[in-house]
């Protein structure tokens, strides 16, 4: 068997994402030629369709419900010229919630896309590796032990996610952040953190346990402008450097030797991107609680739609926003008047997707 076939077979057995082999598309350059961007037609089309779908979902969310509104009334309310009732419904109840869903979905999807590319494994997501459970531990400590406010809960979740990432990094020192190693260690850390979560809930009072369990499900209910502004600011700060490093990320996915030969500082690039991924997941979890499935599935769905062998961060961000906004719309409208948290919908779908993904990877390993 040739070296190329051996590499391909090894990648298939490990469940990793195959390295890019074909580079296509049109290169767009600035007038001075200092900045160039390769645009693939299929990727651009998928991005445009996802953007259109997001606009449609947001429009339906803002116009339907117990207090239906026309598109004109929604636009007037957004412009500050609507009636008192329409202004309250749009600007106080619906708009902060839908924007929180859009920003959280985008943050989780990009976080998952980065981790899946770094690990070259479709199971590489903050849900599986344990960063989400780490954020949950931080939040539960604030809720049960410190009896903190909502702001303190969010800060605790952020601290827990970052501390988990640091712990995983320390366990990987001298072993490299690549392949199945990060995924396997992350799964072990996640299981340990899940046990800690269960212990904290058993030590809580009945009221504290109820509050903690409600937070652990993941919800967009009662989200205000403070939540939308917080996650929006995090996304505005963290997504641009992630997009700028996407080309280096694609080269790192091809393998360390290839990336270094092309002038990429692999260690620094991988570390910076890992920090961005963890921060995105931690901020998202701090705002809404753990929301499963988005970070795991959105990047994989985008890869299949775009037929791209490398990371597609912008389409992944839009896919995550669409999936979470659509899931929240379904739990609000289909299951009304029951107030179901969006985490129940994403968790159910995510479980089915994970089963399908494991079966698919198992068949690849036997091929």
Topology:
Blueprint: H1 3-14, E1 26-29, E2 36-39, H2 41-63, H3 71-78, H4 84-119, H5 126-129, H6 131-146, H7 150-172, H8 179-202, H9 206-217, H10 225-244, H11 246-253, H12 256-261, H13 266-288, H14 294-306, H15 313-333, H16 342-366
Antiparallel strand pairs: 1-2
Task: Explain what you see.
The chain is mainly alpha-helical and 367 residues long. It contains 16 helices and two strands. It has helices at 3-14, 41-63, 71-78, 84-119, 126-129, 131-146, 150-172, 179-202, 206-217, 225-244, 246-253, 256-261, 266-288, 294-306, 313-333, 342-366, and strands at 26-29, 36-39. It has a two-stranded antiparallel sheet with strand order 1-2. The radius of gyration is 21 Å and the shape is globular.
Largest sheet: 2 strands, antiparallel
Number of helices: 16
The ordered H/E elements are HEEHHHHHHHHHHHHHHH
Low-pLDDT stretches are 1-24
Secondary structure: number of strands = 2
As a percent range, the share of strand residues is: under 5%
Task: Based on Cα principal axes, name the global outline.
Answer: globular
Overall helicity: over 70%
The gyration radius over C-alpha positions equals 21 Å
* Cα end-to-end separation: 15 Å
Average pLDDT rating:
82
Global structural class: mainly alpha
- Give me the side-by-side strand order of the main sheet: 1-2
